[in-house]
């Protein structure tokens, strides 16, 4: 008997019982007797009008000689029986009324029945909705099951990650027709791990699989396993796999698996026990089913490096699909996907935009299209043109303009020299990304911005490129100092200095790019993200080594600081010209900077699009080197 039937039965029983109760309370006697007071009764008795009485407890029912009935209440008169006998009245006595056996049972069990009813009601309510969360379903998996046709995303909506798409499509294929594969003796992987930076479309890809697969799809996020109570995560894992087994073939998707899958034995203090139990349970479950059962577990993370090695063992997540940042062609394809949703003007070319947005992830590009549409709406246009995309790009790369900030003339002048310093050094050092735009309109927290854009997608950086970056970072601060004197230098360069120091330190401790320290790693790889591990297992360096590292960092910084200084000294005229142009126009572009550097008369900025056409050149690198230092097109400026 399932819970539903039980419930119905219960309600029938309760209703039945209620009716019985009401009945027994109000059931009328055959003929309604008239109620008498006791004294009236005694009077009638002595008058000889009473023929017969029935005494039950304190109730006296009687029949008169004239055939009418009456009823009265006996206050406990001890002389009553004597009086009755004296008046030769027939006396019947009944034992006190007992409730029926049925009623006794019902009365005894009623509280339990009601409680059970409430309990069943809660259970049904909580297990029903699927993940709505409730007080009785700690151990439930919380996975959401997607019915066929419920998810509208398809593989067409995912662009620019072709390799990942192919791998994933193969899995979907398998689940649809397992025979095709098993006939050939192929064993399908049990677990597939999607790895890639945030916003590259891992979750989107999983949803697309759900949309494409004609099999049940369970999706859950790693953090759903983590709960305040010990043991809950493990039981959720168990429950999830139980559900999945019932509906195999099917797909289980665990998003952000690093929330549970981190290396074990590395946490600090309490709390990690629970996570370990959950992870252990996950490992057990993944071992517990055979590849041919038709369950495929897909997980996604952007931190594959922190995952427990046991998870990546063969038979578990042994297949990894890299979902990387899109290349030029990929970006264009992603832009086209998102442009389908907005009215686009004829002058818009996805490939041109893609060329100007190296390092953008799929999510960034989606955001770009959205921002452009918002700009167009604000401007009252009926479609989104290239100018809007250009504005959106600037906003995303450099931060929103803050024209409300009022800078004093001297602040403006200082900012202009600072940014011009960045731009000039950036133009002159070898292999530096070309400067794309310089602006002294405050954006975000910066008073000015110098934007460099790589000409092509870049997956690694050379020592020379890194050093050039350090030089251009110092350009801003140095320009301030040269023009206004060491006393006038502002705090605005702190971010530049910090970033230059970071680059230099990483060159020494991580990239093995220093002269003195050799190709050794002296630093934990981003260990600070996982504090527990870092503290307990940090790679220790001796004090002497630490000193040597500092010295080496110092050397790199000094070398580039001096180079920057020399370049600015040699180009003092151009520095003045560029700062002047910035004060006049607020924003200057690549072409105008070209003019200044060639000592030509600077062309006027033609308003709007022309002045800011994206950098030319470009290419499609396809190599994917996940270990390359991430180099998003960050503004080097920002006073
Ligand atoms: P993550 O890899 O961090 O899980 P998401 O899948 O959540 O990234 O991506 C966020 C959003 O960015 C998506 O909803 C989609 O609009 C957009 N996006 C990301 N990657 C792509 C892509 N390859 N193709 C199309 N849109 C994408
Ligand atoms: Mg995601
Ligand atoms: Zn700066």
From TrEMBL:
Q: How does it sit in the membrane?
A: Multi-pass membrane protein
Q: Which residues form the AAA+ ATPase domain?
A: 188-327
Q: Which InterPro entries match?
A: AAA+_ATPase (IPR003593), AAA_lid_3 (IPR041569), ATPase_AAA_core (IPR003959), ATPase_AAA_CS (IPR003960), FtsH (IPR005936), P-loop_NTPase (IPR027417), Pept_M41_FtsH_extracell (IPR011546), Peptidase_M41 (IPR000642)
Which cofactor does this sequence's record say it needs? Zn(2+)
User: In its keyword annotation, does this UniProt entry include Methyltransferase?
Assistant: no
* Record localization: Cell membrane; Membrane
Q: Which UniProt keywords apply?
A: ATP-binding, Cell membrane, Hydrolase, Membrane, Metal-binding, Metalloprotease, Nucleotide-binding, Protease, Transmembrane, Transmembrane helix, Zinc
- The EC number of this protein is 3.4.24.-
| Chain's role | Acts as a processive, ATP-dependent zinc metallopeptidase for both cytoplasmic and membrane proteins. Plays a role in the quality control of integral membrane proteins.
Q: Which family does it belong to?
A: In the C-terminal section; belongs to the peptidase M41 family.
**Stated name of the protein:** ATP-dependent zinc metalloprotease FtsH
């Amino acid at each position: 008997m399932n819970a539903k039937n039980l419930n119905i039965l219960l309600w029938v029983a309760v209703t039945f019982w209620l009716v019985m109760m009401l009945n027994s309370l109000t059931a009328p006697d055959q003929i309604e007797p008239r109620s008498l007071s006791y004294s009236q009764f005694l009077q009638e008795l002595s008058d000889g009008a009473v023929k017969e009485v029935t005494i039950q407890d304190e109730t006296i029912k009687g029949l008169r000689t004239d055939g009418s009935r009456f009823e009265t209440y006996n206050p406990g008169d001890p002389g009553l029986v004597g009086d009755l006998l004296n008046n030769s009245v027939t006396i019947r006595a009944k034992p006190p009324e007992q409730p029926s056996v049925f009623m006794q049972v019902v009365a005894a069990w009623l509280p339990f029945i009601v409680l059970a009813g409430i309990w069943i009601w809660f259970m049904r309510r909580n297990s029903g909705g699927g993940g709505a969360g409730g007080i009785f379903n700690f151990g439930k998996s919380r996975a959401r099951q997607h019915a066929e046709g419920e998810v509208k995303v398809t593989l067409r909506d995912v662009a620019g990650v072709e390799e990942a798409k192919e791998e994933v499509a193969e899995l979907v294929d398998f689940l649809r027709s397992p025979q095709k594969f098993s006939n050939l003796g192929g064993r399908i992987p049990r677990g597939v791990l999607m790895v890639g930076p945030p916003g590259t479309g891992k979750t989107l890809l999983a949803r697309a699989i759900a949309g494409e697969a004609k099999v049940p799809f369970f999706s859950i996020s790693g953090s759903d396993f983590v709960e305040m109570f010990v043991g809950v995560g493990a039981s959720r894992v168990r429950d999830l796999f139980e559900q999945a087994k019932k509906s195999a073939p099917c797909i289980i998707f665990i998003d952000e698996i690093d929330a549970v899958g981190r290396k074990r034995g590395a946490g600090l203090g309490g709390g990690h026990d629970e996570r370990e139990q959950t992870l252990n349970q996950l490992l057990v479950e993944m071992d517990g089913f055979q590849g041919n059962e038709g369950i495929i577990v897909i997980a996604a993370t952007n931190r594959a490096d922190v995952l427990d090695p046991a998870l990546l063992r063969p038979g578990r997540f042994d297949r990894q699909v890299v979902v990387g940042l899109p290349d030029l062609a990929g970006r264009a394809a992603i832009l086209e996907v998102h442009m389908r949703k907005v009215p686009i003007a004829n002058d818009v070319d996805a490939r041109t935009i893609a060329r100007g947005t190296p390092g953008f992830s799929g999510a960034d590009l989606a955001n770009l299209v959205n921002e452009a549409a918002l700009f167009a709406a604000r401007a009252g246009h009926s479609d989104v043109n290239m100018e809007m995309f250009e504005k959106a790009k600037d906003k995303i790369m450099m931060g929103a303009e803050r024209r409300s900030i009022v800078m004093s003339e001297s602040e403006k002048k200082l900012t202009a020299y600072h940014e011009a310093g960045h731009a000039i050094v950036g133009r002159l050092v070898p292999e530096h990304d070309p400067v794309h735009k310089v602006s002294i309109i405050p954006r975000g927290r910066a008073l000015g911005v110098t934007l460099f854009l790589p000409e092509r997608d870049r997956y690694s950086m050379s020592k020379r490129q890194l050093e050039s970056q350090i030089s251009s970072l110092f350009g801003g601060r140095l320009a301030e100092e040269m023009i206004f004197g060491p006393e006038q230098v502002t705090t605005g360069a702190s971010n530049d200095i910090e970033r230059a120091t970071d680059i230099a330190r990483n060159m020494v401790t991580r990239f093995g790019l220093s002269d003195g320290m050799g190709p050794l790693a002296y630093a934990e790889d981003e260990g600070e993200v996982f504090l527990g591990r870092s503290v307990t297992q940090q790679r220790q360096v001796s004090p002497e080594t630490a000193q040597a590292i500092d010295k080496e960092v110092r050397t790199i910084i000094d070398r580039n600081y001096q180079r920057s200084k020399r370049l600015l000294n040699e180009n003092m005229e151009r520095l003045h010209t560029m700062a002047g142009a910035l004060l006049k126009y607020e924003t200057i572009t690549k072409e105008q900077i070209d003019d200044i550097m060639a000592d030509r008369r600077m062309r006027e900025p033609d308003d709007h699009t022309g002045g800011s056409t994206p950098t030319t050149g470009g290419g499609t690198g396809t190599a994917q080197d996940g270990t390359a230092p991430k180099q998003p097109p960050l503004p080097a400026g920002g006073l």
